[in-house]
Design brief:
Number of domains: 2
Number of helices: 4
Distance between the termini: 118 Å
Radius of gyration: 33 Å
Structural class: alpha+beta
Length: 209
């Protein structure tokens, strides 16, 4: 492989030959922190470019681009996908440095069905760990919003923000309006109209005598 290589978390290319030599000077020259970073760099480069099979623990994985190739071993121009041994050894460094973050599921539901809608439609949506998700509940006609249930715990307010530190369930709870609330507005309007008509008729009544 070429001596100069790139890894996604460094802006400048690294010299593989030098890093391999320098890591061998631990602990006289190379520090433990430098050695750990070099191991992550070399693991990534190795897994990115060549297949790695190990007879020892931890296990190393080998990936094959099945869209381009139909068997193994194949031609000299093998195109390998995945991170090879990095998947089992150095992946922790990418997570530790927040270069790679796990996807976590937010499962949204509505109760009762038809009681209202949410600004993010019900279902399970994947978000990168650390993402803040804001959801608003809107009641349907004849319903009012009651509360949210975040992982079973009640939360007030029609709008809620959820930080994806782990997978969560979020339920929007609506409740039907009582019949008197549904018709109260209409009754008030009817009463006002009748009163207005009565008042107009009284004023227009002709004077006799």
């Amino acid at each position: 492989m070429p001596t100069l290589q790139r890894v996604p978390w460094l802006s400048e290319p690294v010299n593989v030959t030098y890093l391999t030599w320098y890591m061998g000077t631990y602990p006289a020259t190379c520090t433990e922190k430098e050695r750990n970073e070099i191991r992550a760099i070399l693991s990534y480069i190795t897994g990115d470019q060549v297949p790695v099979i190990t007879m020892f623990s931890p296990t190393a994985y080998m990936y094959l681009n099945t869209e381009r190739l139909g068997g193994w071993p194949a031609a000299d121009d093998l195109l390998w996908l995945g991170m090879g041994s990095y998947a089992d050894r150095g992946l922790s460094y990418l997570f530790r440095w927040n270069i790679l973050k796990p996807n976590l599921g937010l499962t949204i539901s509505v109760s009762p069905t038809g009681g209202g809608t949410t600004s993010i439609a019900p279902g399970t949506i994947k978000y990168v760990k650390g993402t803040t998700v804001t959801v608003t509940a809107t009641p349907a006609s004849g319903y009012t919003f009651k509360n949210w249930k975040l992982d079973g715990a009640e939360r007030s307010g029609a709008t809620i923000s959820v930080t994806m530190d782990t997978s969560h369930t979020l339920e929007a709870v609506f409740e039907a309006l009582p019949p008197y609330e549904l018709y109260a507005g209409g009754i008030i309007v009817v009463v006002v109209v009748i009163a207005a008509v009565y008042f107009v008729l009284r004023r227009r009544k002709p004077v006799t005598g």
